[in-house]
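sorry to bug you again but im stuck and you know this stuff better than me. what follows is a protein written twice so to speak, once as letters and once as structure tokens for the fold. mainly i need to know what kind of three dimensional shape the backbone takes. anything you notice is useful, everything is just below:
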Amino acid sequence: MVRNGGGAAAGRTYHRAQVGRSLEAHIAAVDEEIRALLHTADTSLQPFYGMMLYQLGLDARKASGKRLRPVLCTLVYEAITGDPSAALPAAAAIELVHNFTLIHDDIEDQDPARHHRPTVWSVWGVPQAINAGDGMFAVSRLALQRLRGLPADRVVAFAGLLDDACVRVCEGQFLDISFETRTDVTTERYRAMAAKKTGAMFAAAAAGAATLATDDASTRQALARFGDAFGEAFQAHDDLLGIWASTERTGKVEMNDLTKRKKTLPVVLAFERAPAKTRERLAALFEPPAPLPPDNVERIRAILDELGIRGVIEAEVAAHRSRALHLLRGVAPIAAARDALELLDRMVASATGAAEPAGAAAT
């Protein structure tokens, strides 16, 4: 297994000048960094790392996946410094931590599918899936050792930021699971949970890149706020997809959030906005233990449609997206880096369901 060695010295085949030209080039560079971290010559351990590669979609010759969080990191770093290469180990660490949480999340939620194929636990069993998730977290720590050539205080600060984000994600998952047995979850409580479970990693990616690239505190803070807003938009959009999108689009079981009694934002809003009698009907439909009967699920979604919840969520996604892009363009180094800003605009728009790239940089 490749453990140390600076990111720029890891034998990459891409050219630096090509990385900034497209999101696909950034994804390819991140994937190459991750492959180097998960490589082993020990044939007896190849299945162990194979589970991790499978989770990441790197088990096939042609990888798939948007790599939102690590590419956010490399794009921000490139916008500030002009070259994303030095940040690739940090981006790999972010993606490994994120997928460590996803493997465990799939076990906890008993989700059979992710990204249009079986989840790790459903293929290899729960014990090996837990071990693979733990292994990904451990390898993320090794990725940090590849941040050579950067000031040590910045690397230490980035490591602390990533650790804090990981703790916040675990806190958010605890709250999310606890909400499944409750019908009194407020939007305030839900948003606090989502800020931890989803927003923390987006903020870590953006602020982490700034932490490695500059000592300017205002730049770091502004990018953390941008990451938070991006994460809120992404989570609200994901909640919308969890109820109204098809399996073909999401790669997950249709309306699985409702089946599992999850109190996502549409459900929380419905409980808050519904008249008393409708609220009583919703509570009764959510009363059986998970998995909810299909008839209950259909009736719950019908109530959400009657209340116009989808339109409310779409408006909220748009508001968070607009705030995120406003914050992004207010960061002087980012605003000056037109190519990177355009790619960031495209990524935010695509990840949050915008029909066209949003913002001035994309027009």
